[in-house]
């Protein structure tokens, strides 16, 4: 299986898992903001980037690093909180897949699925701490 198929399978598994959760828990998934993507000239812009980072309690610099590294593209964060990816029109689907992967790996609690978590960095060791259930676990640094 290639990576895309793996992702699709993973999404299907997640959807099935969510369907079995009580309504109160699964409702939290709707709190996750969507990416507002625009193409300006040759560039790709995520307009609400800072807003998303704020909602997810993540440092925009870290989230930007994740996106640019994943895409292998140069980019910058503007004062207005837009992420610009230079000189390429990146497909919406591709950006959404990376975003979903970021959420699964660096935001959603592995224990209860809440997105109300925080990222704690202690030197080279990174942790996720869940504000809903209190779970703490280490993650791979970006
Ligand atoms: Zn939790």
- The proportion of strand residues reads 15-25%
Radius of gyration: 16 Å
Can you list the strand order of the major beta sheet?
1-2-4-3
Which CATH class of the domain at 26-108 applies here? Alpha Beta
Explain this structure to me?
- This protein is of the alpha+beta class and 142 residues long.
- The chain has a domain at 26-108: Defensin A-like (2-Layer Sandwich), CATH 3.30.30.170.
- The chain is built from 5 helices and 7 strands; from the N terminus they run ααββααββαβββ.
- The strands form 2 sheets. A 4-stranded antiparallel beta sheet has the order 1-2-4-3, covered by helices on one side. It has a 3-stranded antiparallel beta sheet with strand order 5-6-7, with helices on one face.
- Helix 4 (60-71) packs across helix 5 (92-107).
- The radius of gyration is 16 Å and the shape is globular.
- The chain starts with a helix and ends with a strand.
- Bound molecules: zinc ion.
- The site of zinc ion has 8 residues, from loops.
- The site of zinc ion (ZN) has 8 residues, from loops.
